[in-house]
Amino acid sequence: MSWLLLVPLLLLTAHTAVNALLLRRPRRDASTTERVAVLLPLRDEAARVTPCLESLLAQRGVPNLTIHVLDDGSTDGTADVVRAVAGDRVRLHTGTPPPDGWLGKPNACARLAEVAGDVDVLVFVDADVVLEPDAVAGAVDLLRSAGVALLSPYPKIVGAGRLVQPLLQWSWLTFLPLRGMERSSRPSLAAAGGQWLVVDRAGYRQAGGHAAVRGDILEDIGLARAVKRAGGRIALADGSRLATCRMYNSWSELADGYGKSLWASFGSAAGAATVVVLLLLLYALPLALLPIAPAAYLLGVTGRMISAIATGGRAFPDAFAHPVSIVLFAWLIARSFHLRRRGRLIWRGRGIIPG
What we know:
This protein is an alpha/beta fold. The strands form 3 sheets. It has a 7-stranded mixed β-sheet with strand order 3-2-1-4-8-6-9, with helices on both faces. A 3-stranded mixed β-sheet has the order 5-10-7. It has a two-stranded antiparallel sheet with strand order 11-12. The N and C termini lie far apart (42 Å). The mean pLDDT is 93.
């Protein structure tokens, strides 16, 4: 009977390969005459915002580009760094405390979308993202050629967390039918990464903007679902050739970052438990079951390697630790729920509203 465990593993690995072949990618040397606003929300990012700003100022192929930066109550001199690096080449705005029912990032993004003015495309970028000079033009070009209202080009993830971070791309390549997600109108069939989001302005307004996700911990996925509910289409893309993202510099930063949001990723504790059990059954338990252990291990590693190659990650030797990655991820999920029950969800000095 243990051999039956290999069937779903084989199907999932094949699905990863198919998705990798279908994965959209922004092209280099693109250009657009559309009015584009790049929106950068900042809170205590003085130590790492400079590379991001410099990459935004170096964008080409977008003659009608404006860059709006919002300092969201920073206490580390972030605004001074922005002025020193960019001068008057960006429009620097001062944020206000989020109103009742709003989390900090949705509030900052909503404010940025408001001050962007009359533009065609909104490009949301996080401070830990560094874009290649063709990135904005290529992403806008792909947004239009794919015919979607929201495009999420995943950057190449660098920095701490080599055991866990690649699971972001691996998870949607393995379990999410990319083309089916694009065609489907179901809001539940949605994924997005808030590090770099490209949104049609009209589609954003029709979806209710960030006001529609004002209390969402995962405002990126919430916005993608809101776009779908409003009749728009969404797409994921591999942005690794045009963007890098250093989300965390240490394991403790990663654990805190995952702790604040993983509890909200599965809908409920029961949903999270189901996912954890499924992942452990598929990618960890079979290693203790002879004689299928070698085949099960190789199938898991193969899927992880396909994902890494498709999204600019490290295929070797990282993929060979895939079972360890799964166990660590399961622990991070359990820790996130534990922190939520204890009321200890804090990020950037602000308490997080459990909802």
